[in-house]
Amino acid sequence: MQPYYEVSLIRPWHWGIAILSAVDAAVPESLGESRVTSTSECLVIQVRHAQDIEAAVFEGDWDWATAAVHLRSVPDFEEPTGTVLYEGLLALPDGRLSVGDADSQVIVTDLPTQTRVRVQTDDLAEYGVSAVQVDLAP
Questions:
Q1: Could you name the domain of life of the organism this protein comes from (predicted)?
Q2: Selected residue with higher pLDDT from 11 and 53
Q3: Which residue of 21, 30, 40, 70 has the lowest C-beta tally within 10 Å?
């Protein structure tokens, strides 16, 4: 099935988390043991921390580890291709989804006010995933 659109955000995550939420939604104060923590309006995904590299000293702006968040807006979910970390509903009162962390964010628009979300990965690293796929469906 062809997605309506795809967005990939690949960057250093200096907080070790990717936040997917309604714009201005409250973020959970604690994450717990799961790789994904959720509220009705927010998902927090533990991703590879920017400092998770094998170097004694950071010598430049591009020494940071990166993680990828791949968003796909799809008509319906297909059979999972990786390990499903989360599946549920996300309330987006104005149809906008913010993807980012305390450093920066990207806003995706025109989503249903009740969006189904599936988060999956092929990478089950101990301290956070380096790539995650997030499917959004009506």
A1: Bacteria
A2: 11
A3: 30
